[in-house]
Amino acid sequence: MKPVNILDTPIKYLKGVGPVRADLLKKELNIFTFNHLLNYFPFRYVDRSKFFKIQDINSDASYVQLKGNIKNIQKVGKPRAQRIVAYFEDETGTIELVWFKGLRWIINKFKPDEEYIVFGKPAYFNGKYNIPHPEIEAVSDGKINLGEKLQAFYSSTEKLKSKGLDSKGIGRIMKNLIVAVKDYIPETLSTDILENLKLIPGKESLLTVHFPGNQQILEKARARLKFEELFFIQLNLLKLKLLRIEKIKGHKFPVVGSFFNDFYNNNLPFDLTNAQKKVIKEIRADLGSGKQMNRLLQGDVGSGKTLVALMTMLIALDNNYQACIMAPTEILANQHYATVSKMLSGLGINTRLLTGSTKTSLRNEIHTQLQDGTLQILIGTHALIEETVKFKNLGLVVIDEQHRFGVAQRAKLWKKNVIPPHILVMTATPIPRTLAMTLYGDLDVSIIDEMPPGRKSIKTAHYYDKDRLKVFGFLKKQIKSSRQVYNVYPLINESEKLDLKDLMDGYESITRAFPLPEYAVSIVHGQKSSKEKDYEMQRFVKGETQLMVATTVIEVGVDIPNASVMVIENAERFGLSQLHQLRGRVGRGADQSYCILMTKDKLTNEARQRIQTMVRTTDGFEIAEADLKLRGPGDLQGTQQSGILDLKIADLIKDEKILKYSRKVAADILEEDPHLEMEKNIPVLNQLRYINKNKPNWSLIS
Ligand code: ADP
Ligand code: MG
User: Fold this and answer.
1) Which of 153, 225, 538, 671 gives a 20 to 30 Å CA spacing to 314?
2) Of the residues 590, 617, 644, which one is the last residue of a structural domain?
3) Which pTM value belongs to this model?
4) Beta strands at 64-76 and 394-400: parallel, antiparallel or unpaired
């Protein structure tokens, strides 16, 4: 029997925790075991050996430590809103300390001639600084342990604080934890890695990160832990890739035949861009290799990814296999279906659409045709993953994903065949390199870095709501020269009545400003049935309506070249990648296109930066980087569910360098020792197993 790992001990058994706190730790912080707590890292450190002068306090100071006397302490305010204010003074000035709670206890505690050390976070109020609820100790108490210079701060929650687990409380149980596990913390990296990269041992880094001696050793500890975290992610991804190459046979598509050639010679309405050609070559090489393809196709909005996907599918058909495209929304699936059917017209290819709203009779027909092999290309939504959807011989899956399909869902599609199909993942928006390396680190990457010729760069402008009349005037001019206009409203939550009201109000004011019979307006939103949405879309596609008022349902993929103006309402409420997606709906024809960002007058700093970024650049990669910097990876659309980005200490923005070399180190190790069988790699193998035991996401794959 394997020895029980003390690190897996349930958290309630830790001294100072017990069942009640354990419950809260689980619910609030996902801390179930000793190991989880050990890996719950401080988010900040404050140097308690340094004293601030009152006159130096400014808005940059987060926490300050002061030394001085209390001159006066008093209750102020009306009985119901009472607070205590103490006037604290050092040789440079005076600052107010303020308490809103525990009033009686405080007022009798402090003596005027005693010297105190005050510690807290200054707040700016009514033109001056104060420190609400500071920590305060008399110097003569000697309680303040100045030997422990760097104090760690843990984030906590209201509920945890109410049970004594504020930052300090967490620090206390952390101390107990260290005592309990100190002798059982394994080294997870090989001696080779430690020596080559000059990293400090794992145990030392864990002890240090919670109870740092000084700044230098803390930096070393954090660097080691960041490396470790990113290294094991990369090792897992690369191992996954290796395993696939070794174990999984792929369909071999040796020929390019008449479907592909007929399309290329007769149906292709334009020349491929060089970037498209390059990417198709890369894909061809994969498909002919006998290995399973797992490729990520990146390219900016409008760069022509769909066409690449289509031609890839034709290669599958040429080799007598079926192919499918899975899209994240029904509208997008419809759109793909329309585009693909049109492009393939005359080639005699049986292409069908399957979504949540496909009628049962039709669905049954599709199921039958899939199984007898007469259906060649299937286009649809998540509906494709359902168990009941069975193919005769599925050779290729295209996932148009915008990070909406998790790793696990990708895995499901593989199981649709004895030999798993080739997989082509298309991202609808560019993603920053670091994020791609982490989210899709197991895939090969192809990039379309060139737009089809003749595209004019979209002009983007920012207007405030009060300039609406001017904007309407501009729209009228555009419509006069036969252009069409999108007018998009945010709908953060499709059931939110308020959002819908915004949209309906907007629709009304638009129909008033653009009245029949001169103008006609389409409207699409989440409360409409698919049929209604489709009808409205079709009217717009055919040019029967000049304006399309819509929610973000049109966000991805919709392709109407004659629509050359995109007006985004409440633009401050959209994230950058969404704004970029929306803007990408125009600029698809040869005409000059425009994107108008409407906002209210007052913007938060972050919103202003988003708007400015959009006005400044149309480069999707630059926007993606800006987005990551502004919001952090956790908030990027859909990334949460992947679980991979649940980073404890590393930061995909700041630690790009560490990420890159962690990938390199992982690759080198696997090259030398693909199965991690060498003696020196035992610690790495053990840790990899330990991590994967607790991560269902990964095990689904291998
Ligand atoms: P995305 O990469 O955003 O999915 P699409 O595949 O929707 O882009 O392509 C955008 C538009 O560009 C479509 O109207 C498509 O027909 C057109 N297109 C694609 N490739 C070319 C090309 N090589 N030359 C001209 N137009 C192209
Ligand atoms: Mg697309």
Assistant:
1) 538
2) 617
3) 0.74
4) unpaired
- Centroid of ligand 1 to alpha carbon of 171 (angstroms): 56
Ligand 1, from 307, 399, 618: best to mutate by most atoms within 8 Å of Cβ? 307
CATH number for 54: 2.40.50.140
Q: Which ligand is nearest to the CA of 400?
A: 2
pLDDT (tens digit, 9 = 90+) per residue, 8-59?
999 999 999 999 999 999 999 999 999 999 999 999 898 888 889 999 888 7
Q: How far is the CA of 174 from the centre of ligand 2 (A)?
A: 50
From 106-120, 167-181, 616-630, 646-660, the region with the lowest mean pLDDT? 106-120
The 521-524 sheet, strands edge to edge: 459-464, 594-599, 563-568, 484-488, 547-550, 521-524
Q: Is the CB of 276 under 6 A from ligand 1?
A: yes
Instruction: Calculate the CA 281 to chain-centre distance.
Output: 30
- The residue type of 92 is T
Residue 587 Cβ < 6 Å to ligand 1: no
d(CA 517, CA 503): 22
Joined tokens for residue 404: 């909406």
- The CATH number covering residue 515 comes to 3.40.50.300
For residue 559, give the ligand nearest its CA. Answer: 1
Domain-ending residue, one of 564, 597, 617:
617
306 within ligand 1 shell (Cβ under 6 A): yes
Q: Which two tokens stand for residue 256?
A: 């390019």
Taking the CA atoms of the chain, what radius of gyration do you get in angstroms?
30
Neighbours of ion ligand 2 (CB under 5 A): 306, 557
User: Residue 305 CA: which ligand 1 atom is closest?
Assistant: 2
What DSSP string describes 209-277?
Answer: HHS-SSHHHHHHHHHHHHHHHHHHHHHHHHHHHHHHHHH-B--------HHHHHIIIII--SPPPHHHH
Among the listed residues 635, 484, 637, 501, the one whose alpha carbon sits nearest the alpha carbon of residue 569 = 501
pLDDT of 344 higher than 90: yes
Query: Does 306 fall in a domain?
Result: no
What's the sign of the alpha-carbon dihedral 622, 624, 630, 632? negative
**What pLDDT band is residue 1 in, cutting at 50, 70 and 90?**
very low
Q: What's the domain range around 489? A: 459-617
Q: 574 alpha carbon to ligand 1 midpoint, in Å?
A: 25
- Count of H-run helices and E-run strands, the chain: 24, 22
Per the domain annotation, does 608 fall within a domain? yes
**Residue 604, domain member (yes or no):** yes
Q: Which ligand lies nearest the alpha carbon of 339?
A: 1
Residue 108 lies in a domain: yes
Domains: count for the chain: 2
